[in-house]
Amino acid sequence: METTTVKCALKPREYASNQEVKWCPGCGDYAILNAVQRTLSELQIPKEKATFISGIGCSSRFPYYMDSYGFHTIHGRAAGIATGVKIANPDLSVWMVSGDGDSLAIGGNHFIHAIRRNIDINLLLFNNEIYGLTKGQYSPTSMLGKITKSSPHGSIEHPFNVGELAMGAQSKFYARVVDTDIKSMVKVFRQAEQYRGFAVIEILQNCVIFNDKTHTEITAKETKSDNQLFLKHGEAMLFGAEKNKGIRLNGLELEVVRLGENGITEADILVHDAENENKTLQYMLTQLQLPEFPVALGVIRSVKTETYNEALYNQRKYEMNNSNFNSLDDLFLSGNTFKVS
């Protein structure tokens, strides 16, 4: 009798390892882990084809909790390891997991050059605006005046805006999500995985111990409809509980308007174009801040271009096809050679 093998679809829980998850109860990292497992399940990526590379920090425990390949590397250097993994194994789905301190402080140089090179990697950048693993020092994204163990009189440093930094480094894919919205995280993670290039996903994540409720104005049920502008390519930039508020371009500035007031209609509202190669408006969207504006979420930029790994492969292929030598032996034995008896 002929038998056939039926391959069962992998469920989200099957991507979880047998390791006990050791984040603080209530940490936003749990939701992100859940969203990643759901994303891999939706895309049916084989476990042996997914790799998670992390640096140092609370977020960097991530590889232990995935039943896949991975490396827990060193502080700020995950991008270098992830780059090597992707170049050596171009068919792998490579995810880099990092925090605001790991990527933007000690790893800042690696961060900007990985973006500039456009290597086909997904970066999950957990931004809780604090150093959590080392117990509560201010980080490169901590707000001006933030009182922490390392800034007892308030931070006097202006924080990085992750979107601005990514755009300045020539990012072709940048998105922002919140850890309280698993459904939206899955949508964005899925788009990032299907995108070919270095995908930066900033996740506004809560640290319940050292910086609790830092994103509450954005994520709270009572305020999120007015404080979140979830962008979708090709759709008007509307927000609010009744979708009656929008973003309009007034000269060289963005402004919030309300439908029905002063003759404002939906035709006056900007339509999001994530694929526009001119990043001027996308850059402006990364700068929207409370209380004057809602915070822009979703995929803000997604521009197709050749990846570093594709360019390297094509360069290698060209050199092989046009080489005078078929092997290293041919090279070593070419030119003036002699034989020792």
Structure description:
With 341 residues, the chain is of the alpha/beta class. It has a domain at 12-225: Rossmann fold (3-Layer(aba) Sandwich). The protein has helices spanning 29-43, 78-88, 100-106, 108-117, 162-168, 182-194, 216-219, 224-227, 280-286, 308-321, 328-332, and strands at 50-54, 69-72, 93-99, 122-127, 173-178, 199-204, 228-231, 238-239, 245-250, 253-258, 295-302. It has an eight-stranded mixed β-sheet with strand order 2-1-3-4-6-5-11-7, sandwiched between helices. The chain has a three-stranded antiparallel β-sheet with strand order 8-9-10. Helix 6 (182-194) links the parallel strand 5 (173-178) and strand 6. Helix 3 (100-106) packs across helix 4 (108-117). The longest helix is centred in the N-terminal third of the chain and has 15 residues, at 29-43. The mean pLDDT is 95.
Can you lay out the helices and strands and say which pair or pack?
Elements: H1 29-43, E1 50-54, E2 69-72, H2 78-88, E3 93-99, H3 100-106, H4 108-117, E4 122-127, H5 162-168, E5 173-178, H6 182-194, E6 199-204, H7 216-219, H8 224-227, E7 228-231, E8 238-239, E9 245-250, E10 253-258, H9 280-286, E11 295-302, H10 308-321, H11 328-332
Parallel strand pairs: 1-2, 1-3, 3-4, 4-6, 5-6, 7-11
Antiparallel strand pairs: 5-11, 8-9, 9-10
Helix pairs in contact: 1-6, 3-4
